[in-house]
Amino acid sequence: MTYDEYNAFCGGLPATTYVVQWGGAHVWKVGGKVFAIGGWNKEAPAITFKVSRFSFELLKDQPGLCPAPYLASRGMSWVQNYAEPGLSDKDLKDYIGESHRTVSLGLSKKKQRELCLNQT
After folding, report:
1. What is the pTM of this model?
2. What is the mean pLDDT of residues 61-86?
């Protein structure tokens, strides 16, 4: 996945904001909370995203994936897709979308309503 594809996908998710920080990383947030980070490689970004504990155990040792630097060392379930073979673009989009959903569900109910998120 290229930077353009990554940014276009994340920008298409509901109520997202974008900032470049942490040494040029492309950081995507929902309700002010990070759900995806892309950066550090010139051609294609290493993409970091939040996962469930089950997915963390499943993905952390797969080729091209690792526990996310800094975040996973603090006990958080974040994975980084950093090299080939890694995840397919489809699977990567699925995990980023789920990260967005998971982070949005952690927002206060008031904030979710303000952002028109998770309304059923």
Report:
1. 0.94
2. 92
Location of structure tokens 């550090």: 40
Count of positions (residues) in the chain: 120
8 within 8 A of 45, measured Cβ to Cβ: no
Neighbours of 65 (CB within 10 A): 18
Q: How many Å apart are CA 81 and CA 119, to the nearest integer?
A: 31
Domains annotated on the chain, with CATH: 3-114 (3.90.1150.30)
3-11 vs 89-105: helix axis angle to the nearest 10? 40
Q: How far apart are CA 52 and CA 105, in angstroms?
A: 13
Q: Which of 43, 5, 11 is nearest to 27 (CA)?
A: 11
Q: State mean pLDDT over 37-53.
A: 89
Place of tokens 């980084």: 80
Per-position b or e across 93-110, b if 16+ CB within 10 A of its CB = bebbbbbbbbbbeebeee
